[in-house]
Specification:
The complex is a heterotrimer of chains A (70), B (319) and C (317).
Chain A: H1 12-20, H2 22-40, H3 45-65
Helix pairs in contact in A: 2-3
Chain B: H1 6-17, H2 21-26, H3 30-59, H4 79-85, H5 88-119, H6 126-138, H7 141-151, H8 158-167, H9 183-208, H10 212-220, H11 225-253, H12 257-262, H13 274-283, H14 288-317
Chain C: H1 2-7, H2 15-43, H3 47-50, H4 64-70, E1 71-75, H5 78-83, H6 89-97, E2 100-105, H7 108-139, H8 145-157, H9 160-174, H10 180-204, H11 208-216, H12 221-232, H13 234-250, H14 253-258, H15 266-269, E3 274-275, E4 278-279, H16 281-302, H17 306-310
Antiparallel strand pairs in C: 1-2, 3-4
Helix pairs in contact in C: 2-16, 4-16, 7-10, 7-13, 8-10, 10-13, 11-12
The chains are: A mainly alpha (70), B mainly alpha (319), C mainly alpha (317).
Transmembrane segments (chain A): 22-41, 47-65
Keywords (chain A): Membrane, Transmembrane, Transmembrane helix
Membrane topology (chain B): Multi-pass membrane protein
Chain lengths: 70, 319, 317
């Protein structure tokens, strides 16, 4: 899926950046997802207690990572 | 639009020579104009969304109660967060939410994708039938959901009658909304009825974005239809499916309308999803500080998921 | 059509496949329509027909549901009713046949009018603000553009209950609680995010060359926006307006939490239409039908743009 195939889309810059900081953003995404799962899983109250902190951390990380160029 | 009509030229000259507003606007640089255009929206959102949000964050650290505004406000630190995050009842509400989210999303995705796959076969009249299928999605979930309480009536309801007709059970032998085991499914059924078309529409876009030549190449390679489905159709439509799944997940995580009208959280607390718990704490027991903390927990979760959603949105956009 | 058949013969589904797919989809469509058809049928039933077992598909149509929707009635003794003059109008005679007299109009019309005012008011505001911002984001280099756009979108994703708590306090302080203006502002703020994202998609599709040509002709940027871009974006603006209208029309959570009488819209009102001994289902169905018909019309008008609307303009096609 080459980006040059869609030159008319103005938000290409964003897609570009997503690709470059792929790993970091993927990490943040995983942390957010983990936090959400922890919030709603029926197995451990301890995991539930830490869910909010995890989601918050993931979200903050995601926001910071999307600021970093390169 | 290459040449502007003579009349609009004249109007434009009239505007040009008139001093005042037009002159002032004309003098604006693109940069000023950009801010002039964007600021009103941002100001509105700051006033109606961000300021209240910051206020909620502040309240979540206090003992404030909206029905007793005269009681002095005490700073409590993170006490409410701690009590919510160790409360087994709230945890139970989260699991009720999880049950609702998982089952609605699974059913809507499977049925929605199936329908999209069938509609993509472009049978005669598919446009008309697609529009008909889309109708429930556009209607007010609250108003339509409310009517489902009538369809779910044990003796007189159409739903119970249909089930009785096809299974041979007695129509008054089960209560979809009053029974502890059935009521979580009652809300899943209504949500699936309303929102399956949503998933269907997005999946259809995904299927239509797959160029024909890929299938043609696969045919040349003599790949079976089954093989084509698993190695072309599904992977190529996956970003679209993800988009639909994420959006439905977020929406159903904060589901309020339909559940409030169908069961109001009952019987007992078997359908008490997070929004209903929050509404009870905020607008029935008026524990404003406590419910603000709860609201922030839900909000951060939704915000985190929204980040992922926008990422998925951009992925689909670049197709 | 015919030329496509030869070009795509390899991938075109066979006639049997099509017929099979078609019949499954039609089956689903019919099942999905049953509740909606049932609402409309119930609206024209008498209360006895509405709660009969087995459910009646064939029945004698009655306007009692609509009468009960628009009026309040009070029970009277037969002697009292006989002492009155001839019934005034259809609803009065239906009420008298049930030993009741029409006491006055119900609240349905004021609630419906509230819905209209709030929906149209917030739509006009949201589309106006949205068009300006969308043009700004589409054409100009705005610092932190992506962050602002995400911020705008994220406001729409907030859980309504979480927003309702501080809004309730804020409106109470500034005197906007239970007012139409308050609801219009609130719905505008929710709708403006959709409007910005959708309209940005539409405006992105209008070639910049049009404006540039106009500006070479001596138009200022602002004039080019008004005279060149706006006319080109009419379809997009109309589609966006309908989406905003539908959202505001359908909204329930804010309305039920933040309004009680004065500014209450129809969605929180319809579920609490009560008759003697429980819910008056024909009246609820009648209210629901009148409430849904405009949306059905809009959906048909909007069907080509639905996909854009539900994906915030990301998926165009």
């Amino acid at each position: 899926m080459s980006l040059d195939a869609t030159p008319s889309i103005p938000s290409r810059g964003l897609a570009d950046r997503v690709l470059r900081r792929g790993p970091l953003e993927a990490g943040a995404t995983m942390i957010i997802a983990a936090g959400v799962v922890m919030l709603m899983q029926p197995f451990s109250l301890t995991l539930y207690s830490w869910s909010f902190a995890t989601t918050l951390f993931g979200t903050v990380m995601f926001t910071i990572v999307s600021k970093v160029r390169e | 639009m290459n040449e502007l009509s003579a009349s609009s030229r004249i109007t434009y000259r009239a505007v040009m020579v008139r001093p005042g507003v037009a002159r002032r606007i004309r003098g604006l640089s693109d940069r000023t104009l950009a801010w002039l255009f964007i600021t009103p929206t941002i100001v509105l959102l700051l006033a109606i969304n961000i300021f209240p949000l910051l206020w909620t964050i502040y309240l979540s650290f206090t003992n404030y109660r909206a029905n007793r505004a005269n009681v002095p406000t005490i700073w409590l630190g993170a006490d409410w967060y701690q009590s919510i995050l160790t409360d087994p009842d709230i945890w139970a509400a989260m699991q009720v939410t999880a049950h609702f989210v998982i089952w609605t999303v699974v059913i809507e995705t499977v049925v929605g994708f199936g329908l999209a796959y069938l509609i993509d076969k472009k049978f005669r009249g598919h446009g008309l039938w697609t529009t008909i299928i889309l109708l429930p999605m556009m209607l007010s979930p609250a108003v339509v959901g409310n009517f489902w309480t009538f369809l779910y009536q044990p003796q007189i309801g159409l739903f119970n009658y249909m089930v009785a007709f096809f299974t041979g059970r007695d129509a008054s032998s089960f209560q979809m909304l009053g029974d502890v085991t059935l009521s979580p499914w009652a809300i899943v059924i209504v949500d699936a009825w309303i929102w399956t078309p949503y998933v269907m529409l997005i999946c259809l876009a995904g299927l239509r974005s797959i160029p024909d030549y890929i299938y043609e190449a696969a045919e040349v390679d003599r790949a079976s239809k089954w093989r084509q489905f698993w190695s072309i159709t599904l992977p190529m439509a996956l970003p679209f499916i993800m988009l639909a799944v994420l959006f439905r997940g977020i929406e159903n995580f904060k589901m309020f309308d339909m559940v409030n009208l169908l069961t109001g959280g009952g019987p007992g607390s078997t359908t008490e999803v997070a929004s209903i718990t929050l509404k009870r704490a905020a607008f029935e027991s008026w524990r404003t500080g406590y419910s603000s903390a709860f609201a922030i927990i839900l909000f951060v979760t939704v915000f985190g998921l929204a980040n992922i959603y926008v990422k998925a949105l951009n992925k689909v956009k670049s197709r | 059509m015919t030329s496509a058949t030869t070009a795509h013969s390899v991938v075109e589904p066979s006639a049997t496949t099509r017929r099979f797919a078609g019949s499954l989809v039609v089956l689903y469509a019919i099942i999905t329509m049953i509740p909606l058809v049932w609402i409309m049928l119930t609206a024209f039933k008498s209360p006895d027909d509405a709660i009969s077992y087995p459910p009646k598909v064939m029945f004698k149509p009655s306007l009692e549901g609509f009468c009960n929707l628009f009026t309040t009635r009070s029970r009277q003794t037969p002697e009292f009713i006989r002492s009155l003059g001839p019934p005034q109008g259809l609803c009065d005679s239906i009420a008298r046949s049930r030993n009741m007299v029409v006491a006055g109009p119900s609240n349905y019309v004021p609630r419906f009018v509230n819905s209209l005012i709030i929906a149209f008011g917030s739509t006009v505001l949201a589309v106006a603000l949205g068009t300006l911002s969308a043009y700004g984001f589409s054409r100009f280099r705005v610092p932190l553009k992506d962050d602002l756009l995400f911020f705008i979108l994220s406001t729409r994703m907030m859980p309504p209950i979480a927003v309702a708590i501080p809004i309730y306090l804020m409106y109470r302080t500034v005197g906007l609680s239970d007012t139409r203006l308050g609801m219009i502002l609130l719905y505008t703020s929710v709708n403006v995010s959709l409007a910005v994202w959708l309209l940005k998609g539409f405006i992105d599709e209008i070639p910049r060359e049009y404006e540039e040509a106009a500006m070479i002709d001596g138009y200022t940027r602002f004039q080019a926006f008004v005279k060149v871009v706006l006319p080109q974006a009419t379809t997009g603006i109309a589609a966006t307006a309908i989406f905003c209208l539908i959202f505001a029309w359908n909204e329930y959570a804010f309305a039920v939490l933040l309004t009680s009488g004065n500014a209450q819209t129809a969605p929180p009102f319809i579920p609490i239409i009560i008759g003697e001994g429980g819910q008056d289902w024909p009246a609820v169905a009648a209210g629901t039908t009148l409430f849904l018909v405009p949306i059905v019309v809009f959906t048909v008008l909007l069907r080509k743009h639905l996909l854009r609307g539900i994906t915030f303009g990301a998926v165009r096609k």
